[in-house]
Specification:
There is one protein chain. The chain is of the alpha/beta class and 364 residues long. An 8-stranded mixed β-barrel has the order 6-7-8-9-10-11-12-13, surrounded by 5 helices. Strands 2-3-1-4-5 form a 5-stranded antiparallel beta sheet. This is Diguanylate phosphodiesterase.
């Protein structure tokens, strides 16, 4: 079963499902620099490349390009301006057959986003050609690591040549190119597909980024339908909030979690202890599980400051009836400390690395 098959005949959110168009091979680049210094650097780049340009609107420059010229122009220009100027220089790329309208001007984006699209052109093909898949990382009982309680589905991807793509780079490019909506959805569907392919019948944790979901009843329609199509029980799935430090609208996030709960799913909060915001989210969201921030777990058995903070987080979660998962455990000392302090579950390289199919747990 492929993600494409899971997607077949499923309705949903057009914002999440439509991949942004790749940049045209030739056309016109419109640039609106924010200040005089930036304008001079831009004109210098035009002159050095011997590119003809005009100014169709006051402060908006237009230059014709082909594919290699666009990449070189952006590179030469960026070498002479600050990162803030790169962000504040608004840009728009139109193909040869497109004419500029007022509507197009509303679509201008930071030049840094255009550069990210050039550098991450592979991401368009990867999404269009279904090269996203999941690796599975076991979450084990703290007092009996041979007992696999769940697997977290971790997104992976490959290039057209089969090379593995760095997940961090993939998500960074997606954020900069306005593709997180599509990527987040593709990762959720890949997780469901992978569970079917590898016959995983334990609890599974599926990550989601709150900022990619406008209206859960629309944006999550294909996810819910894919779960039903794969014949996976809602009780088997935990949706895990990632990038919780970026949450700006708690009420919106709460509406997403309520939607999940109404459909029988459980929810988890990632990185508890990574700043005040995560503690605030804990009180508001009342998740079924929390994952202790791996920076707190790292060397916790030898760091008295981390130990005090983490022990109190475990104690607080237990009093609230929330199950705790110590994440990023890599040493026996970290495992034993978490076990002694009452953590319910453990996740980390000490027992297994993410893989597909899941590799057997090894208890030291």
């Amino acid at each position: 079963m492929t993600a494409e098959k899971l997607n077949a005949s499923l309705g949903g959110c057009s914002r999440c499902e439509r991949t942004p168009d790749p940049l045209p091979e030739s056309g016109f680049l419109y640039l609106a620099p924010p200040m005089i210094h930036t304008t001079r650097a831009l004109i210098d780049a035009f002159d050095q490349m011997k590119l003809a340009y005009d100014e169709p609107y006051d402060g908006v420059f237009r230059v014709r390009f082909n594919e290699s010229e666009l990449s070189r122009l952006c590179s030469d220009f960026l070498d002479n301006v600050s990162s803030l100027e790169r962000h504040d220089t608004k840009a728009l790329v139109l193909g040869d057959n497109e004419s500029l309208t007022i509507h197009h001007l509303t679509r201008m984006e930071p030049l840094s986003a255009i550069v990210a699209k050039i550098q991450g052109e592979w991401l368009f093909g990867m999404l269009e050609n279904d090269r996203i898949y999941s690796h599975f990382h076991p979450i084990v009982a703290a007092d009996n690591p041979h007992d696999v309680f769940a697997y977290e589905c971790l997104a992976r991807a490959s290039t057209e040549e089969g090379a593995v793509v760095n997940p961090g780079l993939m998500f960074d490019i997606a954020r900069q190119t306005d593709m997180m909506f599509f990527l987040d959805r593709a990762c959720r569907l890949a997780a469901i597909e992978g569970c079917v392919e590898h016959n995983i019948d334990t609890t599974i944790f599926i990550n989601f980024t709150p900022g990619t979901i406008y209206k859960p009843e629309h944006c999550l329609q294909t996810t819910i339908a894919a779960i039903e199509k794969a014949n996976i029980s809602p009780e088997q799935i935990v949706f895990e909030v990632v990038e919780s430090e970026e949450v700006r609208d708690i009420e919106h996030l709460l509406s997403i979690l309520n939607y999940y709960r109404e459909h029988g799913f459980r929810v988890a909060l990632d990185d508890l202890g990574a700043g005040f915001s995560s503690l605030n989210l804990l009180t508001k969201l009342q998740p079924d599980f929390v994952k202790l921030d791996m920076e707190l777990i790292r060397d916790v058995d030898n760091d008295p400051y981390k130990a005090v903070i983490t022990e109190n987080l475990i104690r607080m979660s237990r009093r609230l009836g929330v199950k705790t998962i110590a994440e990023g455990v890599e040493t026996v000392g970290e495992w034993q400390w978490a076990l002694d302090k009452g953590a319910d579950y453990i996740q980390g390289f000490l027992f297994a690395k993410p893989s597909a199919p899941p590799e057997p747990v090894k208890v030291p």
